[in-house]
Amino acid sequence: MAIPRITDLGIDEIKTIERLRAPSIIIEKRGSAAVAVDSYGRIIAGPSTDHSSVIRAAINALPQGGKIFFRKGDYNLSTGISVNLYPAPGEANIKTLVLEGEGPWTRIIGPPNTTSPALHIYRTHSDNKNYHRVVIRDMTIAANSSRAGARAIKIDNVPLVSLENVITHWSEVGIELASLTEFIARNVYAVFNVTGIKTTAAPESPTTMWFEGCTFRQNTVGVHLEDALGAVFLGGVIESNSDTGLKVTGVSGRHVLLGVWFENNTNWDIDDQTGVSVYNHKNYMIGVKTEKVRFGANAWWEIVGSQLGSIVKDTKAKVYIRRAEGYDSETFKVTGASVSVGTGNAYNPPTTITSKSGVIAFPRVKITWGGTFISGETVTVKVEAVYTDGSTAYIEKAATSTGSLWLADDDILALVADGKDIAMLNIYAKSSASSTAVTVTADAYGKA
What is the CA radius of gyration of the chain? Predict the structure, then answer.
């Protein structure tokens, strides 16, 4: 039987081969001391109670493509571990750094009473000839301090980072990411941090992030996406955070939530306060369970097949809901909406009609003039369609006596724009008189 070539194997087989590859260096505990040995059992560093120096020596001795394996035990750092993968052109650089433990009881604990990250991996130089990769899996990393600045893991300016079966806790930020090309997290568990995971724009926004089966629990904020593009959450739980489950700020978008479960977050499950309106940065929520969500003025979401609780939405937010439990996803109906009547031929602020889905299709509108007209008084009603891109169109109807009318097909035609959805209807009213006893109400229904 022929031995299969690597190109004949599927991704799972390749991952298994890579995982089973013998470590180049093993770090283990011997009593209170740590020691690093190579694959032949020769001591590289230690035994020493200065665990930081042993780990640094192991990283410095790691051959290209090598792996450091940590046996279970607590590795208490005296100073944070800082790894510069590519210091400068012409200097030695680590193209692949693999750190692997024996599971959650392999614990790297950051130095006490400091803001230094337990593990900081970065590059001060980058070019198109050197592609760097970091893999961390099967271990617990904690900063040992929730004070300002303390990070368990900080990674910046590294093209590809993969975290698998990693626990972070007791940090201001469990994982901080900046200037990444691709980030993959599988079964990451962030608990008891101020922020479980946070992206930052310094110096560039992280892009293309994949979270699979991750849990963010009992932090202040579970996930904070600041100036981040293209985060995909596949499954996972974001729950019991004392402020917000998922917070979105800055220039951020193109996020996708698939089957994520939000529960028992104190203030908001999702709070999207994107700072600016960014073209083509729509976010998607599919099969997600939430209890309370807030969308700011620049939020842009399409929500499909989800179980939604309460939604607080800025009037400028673009949020479209389809097939969502508890929300009208096929039709909408509004009756007896009171419209304030301005005087002196000036419109008062409008009464706004929306559907829970965020879209109104084929609206039918009935206007009713009631109360008492004085001689020569005309009351005009303006029905304005506000489209999802912010543009508008309107029609006006006037009356000199009480009565009602439905907008005709030609009126609706004037409100429907090719290639644009109606987000809301604004109903205005004004009287030609200096004072008025006329009332105006509006009824509307349609497809949502």
Answer: 30
